[in-house]
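Record 1 of the preview.
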Amino acid sequence: MALSPVDALQAESLTDLVRPLLKSHNLIKASQSDLKAAEERVKETRGGWYPTATVTTHYGKERQNKPTATDDTNLVTRQADISVNQLVWDFGATNSRIKASKLTAKASDFTVESTIQDLILRASVAFLNVDRSARVLTFARESEANIKRQTELEDALVRKGAGLSSDVLQAKATLSGAQARRVQAEGALAVARNAYRAVFHTDSANLSSLEKPIIPEQLIPPTVDEAIQTALRTNPKLRAADMGAAVAVETINSTKAAAFYPKFDIVASTTYKHNAGGTIGHQEEGLAKLQMSFPFNLGLTSINTLKASKSDAASANSRVGETRDLIEQLVRDSWSNLATAKATHQFLANQASISAEFLELARKERKLGNRSLLDVLNGETALINANSDATSARTDVVIATITLLNAMGRLELKAIQ
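->
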């Protein structure tokens, strides 16, 4: 009634398949690259507190027509300007930009974690659906073969005058239904293998070697409320959204400081001139100063910039709230789906057990002449189908479990061992 056992050394473990995928998949590489870029931008924004050296030089021809009584000049001029600028204080604008870049890096880190968990879920579902479809197809083929065999026996009895033509017709109708179920199972397996190939970039070498993971029931909290609280603490998508809202707040701070407060710098510069400015010969100039700069747009656009930053922050906070609501709904839905899948599997397993008992009794009664061959045929078909449905329902339990773990933000590699 099930696939033939496979040597453990030949079995395809889900964990063994997913582990290398977490290093090579394009989505993982992309999110890790985003994280690396965010970390580099943290270093970039820290550079706001480092001194800046500027070197400007030129070499060229300078000609001046001077006022009356002053000789005109036509010189080959050279000049080099070297200046060092050190920020003293900008009322927190640079510090806010640094904080914003750090928060962005944290958000990228949570995005990497979210991508990993989503990929584990996607790979697990693809793996489990291939396993489910292969097993269901095996049951469907067995059911078809059994009905076909029994139909041929009944037809032979009719030809000998010992059977009923109506039973043959009913058996043939049952056979058509079994054939349709087998075709549907073949189609479902083809679709499942397409999803498997899209995730793992290869086809499963041996469908009978798939090793179904153990249901990680120990990771599921006892109540849905605890599952929701866990999700609100650990779900990486929500934590990334929180970081985005915090970045918006720091953007308000940096905008306010840059738009409404001056900036103080220490500036040291040296200039080397030769035949510059109409003066023949070599000159040197040195300067050290504390400088204040306060650019302010007279159209009061700084106010518009600040208002825009506040609106961005309000939008980010609203999205965080919506994300919280969606995650809570996802946890509740996943919890309900898991409860439904467990109950369904329990009933279908019970149905399979009852069908097995019925078939055993039907075969005994058939020998005593109290049952028709068609009754036995129907009993065998019912048992095969019940076992198929129970197997499929067990897969639904595993999928519902890992989906709930993903919604909670706790779907790690160890959960699918």
